[in-house]
Fold this protein.
Amino acid sequence: QMPSRLASVDKDGVFAQHAHDKAGYVTMMELRALMVWDCRDCLARAGAIAVRYSAVRRQGAGNSADKGQREPAVLDYPTQQRRLLPLVATAYAFHFTGELLRSTIAQLRSSPASGA
């Protein structure tokens, strides 16, 4: 007997498929969802490090140190914001896309015969 719940072969050698034809694609979808989830994890960690460093690091403002004022944080510069904030937004997008994929795959796993 095959170690699969989607198909079997009887003693006479007849192959029988128990589920919908497309049910075998769930494993491939799981791997793709895992890639999205892993990308989210790496991007979120890198983005958090970059944003935290940019918020703490102070640089610029020329003569402001002479006047007793603090230099602005690197994150206060629009160029830095334009570079970092899209990465944070992409990490959030990957997060919610990964969650949706995981819940969809869980539904497919619970009822593979329903097709789709």
